[in-house]
Each structure stands twice: as C-alpha cells, then as structure tokens.
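Worked example 3 (structure in, sequence out).
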C-alpha cells in the first residue's frame, strides 16, 4: 500500500462550488418596532418540516409569504425509545393520540404571530468565490409579518400538510378609518405623518432617495383633503402614491444583517434613481450562467405620446382651470426633437453605461410617435389641484403608461438579494434587450428545485433601429 501523502487544496477538489439552498422561519416580537430585532429566534421545530416557501415582493405595497409544512409527527425508532419528539400528545389513559398531527393545536403557529422568512445558500469553503456568491451564503431577510391564513390538507396522496400565509407589516395600515377626518390647509407631508400616527404605525418614515415635490411641505400651497370613514389607511396613502408616482414599501435596514430591523419608505419611484457607478447594487443576469427563462413583451400602439391633465384649482377663491402637459413640448418635428427642446420626464429612467458604449435608448412614447404617429391623452375633471400639482400628476400618468412599453418575465437561480425595487442588468441577449431594467415584482421560492427567483422587470425604452433610413 502506498504511503505517499495526498497533498491537495480544498478549492482543487471536485464538488466545492455547488450550493445547497436553505430557508428558515424566525419568530419575532408581536409588533414591529424601530431598531434591531433583538428578540428574533428561529422556530427550530419547523426545520425538518418545511416543504416549500414562497415570498412575493412588489415594488410598492405589501409583500406576501406562504410556507408549506409537513403536518405529520414522524419519528425514528431511537426517538421513540427515548420518548423524544415534539409535543407527543397523550390521552387520559396514557396512550399516544393517533393520528398525530403536529400543528393542529396552534401552539407553534397561530394567527397573528409575526414571522420572518430568511433565505440563503449554505456556505461553501471555496475561497475563490465571487463577492456575489459569498453574499448569497449569508442569511438574507425576505419578509416580516403576521400569519393571516392557514390551509390544512389531509390527503391519501400528499399526507398531512399545512400551508401558512401572511403579509408584511404594512397590513397594519389595512385597518379601516373609524371616523372621517378633514384636512383644511394642511400640506401633504403633514397629512401623511398624521395618517401614520392615527393608524398607530410603529415605524417612522425613512429619508427618501429623491426629495418629495416642494408643494407637499408648503403650508402656503396646502389644499383641502378628507380621509373618509371606512377607507383604510393604506388606501388613502396609495391615493397620494398614484398621484405623485410614489412607492410605499418596507425594507430591511441591511440585507447583510437579518436582525437589522425594518424601515418604512414612502418616496418617488426608485426606478428614477440611477445605478451607482460601481454597479455594486445591480445584479447581473447572464445567458448561459444564471438565466433560466427570458420572456420580453413589447407594447407600442398603446403608448401615450403626451398627457394633458386639467382640473379646478384647489382654492375656492380661484375658479380658474389648471392644466399641464407632459412632456411640455408634446409635438416635436420628425424625426426627433432637437437636444434640450423636448424635456422628457422619462430620461431619468432610461439608464445606460455610456462609458462602455451602450446604445442610447428611445422611449416608448417616441417609438409610438415614429411608428404610428401621435397619440395624445387628455385627463379632465381632476379636483384639488394647481399648476404645480397638475404638472406632477401629468408626469406621473405619462411615466406609468410608458412603463408598459417593455416588460420582461424572467426566471433565474435563486437570488434573494435580487428583489423588487432594485435594478438588474441583462447580458448575453444582445441588443435591443441587453442593459439595465427596474425590477417591479419578484417571487422567491424554495422547494424541490432549490431556490428560484421569478421576477418582472421593466424599461420604458430601448434602442431604436431605423429601417430603410427612416
């Protein structure tokens, strides 16, 4: 027998770069609070029973989760010999209850209990992993919120199962307003703060990445508003979000620390914030590496080449009509407006990296104008506006329709940090599809096929390729 020592490095051995996915369920304090979740603890009993987990995160609004669990108390012979097992139920005569369903008593999981779902890949000892792969091996917080629904299944095919579902902590704002509240000459920022106070929402507003419109904090430009009885606090806030093109969402202080706590955000759409210069906050999804499905969908004819919004001034002393158009010069001469002559609100959403020669992007409305002609849209009878508010609202409507121009349904390997509200970069699909997109919805699943991330991204433009010189 040879006595020659085997000298190899860990990274040189086979099987060191695959990942084993993981998901865990944490029990949190009954109510969210500012600061770290110091009381968070894993529900260890669930580890062996988790069959699948799904977390759906929209860019605005409440996130949802569902956990499917085995509900059958199964144990090994050595466990039974030592009377080891989770909550073995005993009848009055000392016999074990049969059949033994683990979670029917609602002791471990019950309505209203706050859970947090974390996902990751289990650590790989290979030191040569990329930064992205190393980050994926840390627990990433996905969603925190109370249990709202349970579905029990007792089947001869699948056995006993329990599906536990819930929403994130924005569900607190779904409570109904008990009494009408009138706001006279109160700026919108004060109104939003008061709505959160009346809803007893425990988290303060985080600083926005893009400042709010100036009129929202000006008492001199304040308007009259009313929060009606029976209208939820969330519905009322989403009305403002629709007007101004805002997003309302919860996000963790740090994705590197699951216990870092939550922050409430109510701010202009994050798609307007460009990726940072180092691209460290942009996931790269690449054909032949981590891209599983890529399904782009284009809608050109329905694009609005301009939006004109009109309504009565919010001041009772001023009966004049206020109107605004977006973009401000809606009828440029063909083939394209002169530089600076047609300020398009969409320019801050058409992100490219000019330093590497990315092609400029032509907006969806401009595609419509060049291919099918003008398609102006007029929205009338808006109430409680002035010239400044009318312009913000016209820009919002123009942006929202343009974002329907190019959407991509994508499936990739599980990437817990790639979530709604962030940018993603596609490579390997060639023009016109390569480049930066905004993720408006992400669904993260853990199950038989490991971790998967299914997300919908959007970009309100793409390179324009003339045909026959036109």
């Amino acid at each position: 027998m040879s006595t020659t020592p085997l000298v190899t490095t860990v990274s040189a051995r086979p099987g060191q770069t695959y990942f084993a996915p993981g998901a865990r369920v944490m029990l949190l304090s009954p109510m969210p609070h500012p600061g770290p979740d110091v009381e968070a603890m894993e529900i260890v009993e669930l580890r062996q029973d988790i069959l699948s987990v799904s977390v759906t995160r929209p860019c605005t609004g409440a996130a949802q989760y569902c956990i499917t669990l085995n509900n059958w108390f199964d144990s090994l012979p050595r466990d039974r010999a030592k009377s080891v097992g989770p909550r073995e139920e005993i009848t009055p005569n000392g016999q074990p209850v049969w059949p033994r369903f683990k979670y029917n008593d609602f002791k471990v999981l019950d309505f209203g209990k706050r859970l947090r779902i974390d996902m990751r890949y289990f650590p790989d000892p290979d030191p040569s992993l990329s930064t992205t792969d190393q980050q994926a091996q840390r627990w990433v917080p996905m969603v925190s919120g109370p249990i709202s629904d349970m579905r029990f299944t007792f089947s001869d095919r699948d056995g006993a199962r329990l599906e536990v579902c819930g929403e994130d902590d924005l569900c607190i704002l779904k409570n109904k307003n008990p009494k009408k509240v009138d706001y006279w000459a109160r700026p919108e920022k004060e109104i939003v703060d008061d709505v959160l106070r009346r809803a007893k929402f425990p988290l303060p507003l985080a600083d926005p990445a893009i400042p709010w419109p100036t009129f929202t904090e000006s008492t001199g430009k304040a308007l009259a508003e009313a929060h009606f009885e029976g209208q939820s606090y969330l519905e009322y806030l989403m009305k403002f979000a629709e007007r101004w093109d805002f997003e309302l969402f919860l996000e963790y202080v740090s994705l590197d620390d699951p216990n870092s706590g939550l922050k409430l955000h109510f701010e202009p759409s994050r798609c307007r914030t460009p990726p940072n210069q180092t691209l460290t906050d942009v996931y790269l999804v690449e054909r032949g590496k981590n891209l599983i499905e890529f399904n782009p969908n284009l809608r050109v004819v329905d694009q609005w080449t301009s939006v004109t919004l009109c309504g009565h001034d919010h001041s009772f002393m001023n009966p004049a009509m206020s109107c605004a158009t977006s973009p401000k010069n809606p009828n440029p001469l063909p083939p394209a407006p002169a530089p600076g002559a047609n300020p398009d609100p969409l320019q801050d959403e058409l992100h490219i990296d000019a330093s590497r020669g990315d092609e400029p992007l032509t907006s969806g409305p401009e595609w419509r104008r060049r291919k099918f002609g003008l398609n102006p849209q007029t929205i009338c009878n808006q109430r409680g506006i002035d010239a400044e508010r009318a312009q913000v609202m016209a820009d919002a409507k123009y942006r929202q329709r343009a974002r329907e121009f190019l959407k991509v349904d994508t499936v990739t390997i599980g990437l817990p940090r790639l979530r709604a509200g962030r940018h993603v970069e596609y490579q390997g699909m060639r023009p016109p599809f390569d480049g930066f997109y905004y993720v408006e919805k992400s669904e993260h699943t853990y199950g038989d096929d490991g971790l998967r991330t299914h997300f919908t991204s959007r970009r309100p433009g793409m390179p324009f390729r003339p045909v026959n010189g036109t």
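Notes: Residues 387-402 form the longest helix (16 residues). Residues 331 and 374 are 8 Å apart (CA to CA).
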